[in-house]
Amino acid sequence: MAKIISDVVCPFCGTLCDDLEVKVSDDGKEILEVYNACVIGTEKFLHSQAKDRLTVPMKQDEEGNWNEVSVDDAVEYTAQMLCNAKKPLMYGWSSTNCEAQSKGHEIAELVGGVVDNTATVCHGTTLIAVQDVGVPSCTLGEVKNRADRIVFWGCNPAHAHPRHMSRYSIFPRGFFTGKGHKARKMVVVDPRSTDTAKMADLHMQIEQGRDYELLSALRVAIRGNPLPETVAGIPRETIQDVAETLKSGRFVVIFFGMGVTQSLSKNHNIDIAIALTRDLNDYTKAAIMPMRGHYNVTGSGQVLGWQFGYPFCVDLSRGFARYNPGDSTSNDLLRRGEVDAVFVLGSDPGAHFPISSVKKIAQLPSVCVEPHYTPTTAVCKLHMPVAFVGVEEGGCAYRMDNVPIETRKVVEPPEGMLSDEEFLERVLERVKEIKGVA
Fold first, then answer.
1. What is the pLDDT of residues 299-314, one digit of tens each?
2. What are the phi and psi torsion angles at 381 (to 5°)?
3. Cα–Cα distance between 291 and 275 in angstroms, integer?
4. What is the CATH architecture assignment of 58-121+296-435?
5. What band does 28 get if pLDDT is binned at 50, 70 and 90?
6. Class of domain 124-290
7. Structure pTM?
């Protein structure tokens, strides 16, 4: 008889919804149905059951043909590749658990590698800004229970975080927000008319790349000082209306995404967004929070932080941790030809990096650790399949508000399939043998 597992955590996005129910077969090997998840979260669970899923390691020979190899061979190739490299890049880490991240960092320290996560191409600028000026933030629980003014700046949660608005930010009825969305005002700042923007009380259709100017104008308007007729394509009256709307709220939360972090001014956009949040705290309660993408990219920054003191692009090639965004970040290293091996886990740079970086990966000794085929597989020399974290393996993950949540195992992985942590543990043991470390 089928059974239902409740309180399952969704391993898709940084919202980490923890109210899923998964119906599994009585032998615990097959997922039959998924309840409460969004369409993307549901697909993540069901995709783990794909019939064409890779279950054995595959290695590319000199002619470019793929051949099956044993797990022992995959461990040996990975360990030798990392030990023989002078400066290996170990990239990804955002779609796995904190336990595996910690194990991978230990390997990186032994081989003198560079550890970088997907923040390098999304919210790395946020992390730099937080280091510059700090951050007045809160938890998603506080948003649900207290916030009555919500700003979505440069993000589209209707598509990227499908249950964010229904669970935390707009629609739920919290302890002090008993009327749900009827008691909230929603402002969206986006150059496009997105599905999120269409739901807003006010859509500020900003000119592309002029976020810094509009944020500055809002700071001016909040203080009641005069403004020019238009700023970043937004009329003065609209800016003043938004400023008054935010000041009149009991609890303001600004959520921002890659439309801010990767537009002109980069981390300085976030600096001034945080300054705007602090200004609002002179009139009401205000907080700001990044909309993190991968379900455990926040955890990757946390683990790197407590192991090495820095949240991404950590260079260990000299035997101690160095951090210099723009120098020790993945794309900069690849494009300058400064790394001689690439290890990818929990990400897909083959699909998201510039073609110049992808070409460099294709030319180097490389390993891709991933449950299924990805564009990165095509440019790597070895593909090591592993269990799905959050589906076939549990472990700790950090929600976008930096709250740690324990993910749950709901089904067994295919027979003989290692988890990320188990594979990294075996690689670590072999690296220690090669390096002669006790």
1. 999 999 999 999 999 9
2. -90, -25
3. 18
4. 3-Layer(aba) Sandwich (3.40)
5. confident
6. alpha beta
7. 0.96
